[in-house]
Amino acid sequence: MVKIFDAHSDVLYKMWMDPTIDFADSPKLHITYNRLKASGSKVQCFAIYIPEGVRAESRFEVALEMVEIFYKRVIAPSPLLKVVRTREDIKALKENEIGAFLTLEGCDAIDRSLVKLQTLLRLGVSSVGLTWNYANYVADGVGEPRGGGLSSFGIEVVKEHNKAFIWTDVSHLSIKGFWDVIEVADYPIASHSNAIAICNHRRNLLDEQIKALIQKNGMIGITFVPQFLSNHDSASIDDVLKHLDYICSLGGENHVGFGSDFDGITETTTGLENFSGYDMLVENLHKHYSANQAKNFLFQNFVGNLPV
């Protein structure tokens, strides 16, 4: 059976916003336990994302609330879902078990505190995105007009990731911040970003950025956000394949996978309306690529890139 590693979703945010959501089969979710089981999921990443409207003094507490949702409302009622942090954890999964990988999307939650970061890492966070679109104490996001890079605290944060052997995620980061990360990070990835040469959106990556991630042995997760896939009003699986082809043409065949951003988006790509759409994506991959290439894109590239 096909194995899928999806590098980004916002299930926890949706479940925090609506406590009535049942992870098993809620129609309000793109990703549910039943869909993961049915469509070949092997590792699903669950992001902690703190909405912009949360007051600064409450952000760490909200992050902890999402950690609690992860363990209590996602993991506990889902017998086949197991928390994973390392390559060995994934290898240890039984045939029908699915790994759940906890991530942080933006360092707003940690304020200026390495202790708060270290606490989240101890609670299971194994990949950290430095910003959402705007500025925090770590760096500027891609939507911050001044376009600043890493602060001195941001450099400390990335070094902490290196010591903990976890990914530093550059999705949402300013261009200057990206290049600072390339200088400092041992394990950089872009969990949900596409190629700007195919779709001119500020959240997508320049050719030079894609090549830099490849040279650093990093990963790029092609995301299913329609606005990041196509310059037109809608997008399809063909657009996903265009980004995949393009990143491969830059030397990224072993450095590209998928980061859907399911449950973080309101509009969806045709054929990828929820996690079940992976079935059609897999079918299309097998039409254009070898079985081994498809396996790598869907699963092995991200797993092989894990720091430990």
Summarize the structure.
The protein is α/β, with parallel strands linked by helices and 308 residues long.
Strand content: 5-15%
**Residue ranges: pLDDT <50 for 5 or more in a row?**
none
Radius of gyration: 18 Å
Termini separation comes to 25 Å
Task: Please give a structural write-up.
This protein has about 300 residues and is an alpha/beta fold. It has a single domain (about 5-305), classed as Metal-dependent hydrolases (TIM Barrel, Alpha-Beta Barrel). Helix content is about 40%, strand content about 15%. The chain has 12 helices and 9 strands. The protein has helices spanning about 10-15, 35-40, 60-75, 85-90, 115-120, 150-165, 175-185, 205-215, 225-230, 235-250, 280-290, 290-305, and strands at about 5, 40-50, 80-85, 100-105, 125-130, 165-170, 190, 220, 255-260. Strands 1, 2, 3, 4, 5, 6, 7, 8 and 9 form a 9-stranded parallel sheet that branches. Strand 6, helix 7 (about 175-185) and strand 7 (about 190) form a beta-alpha-beta unit. Helix 5 (about 115-120) packs parallel to helix 6 (about 150-165). It is globular, with a radius of gyration of 18 Å. The model has no long low-confidence stretch (mean pLDDT about 100).
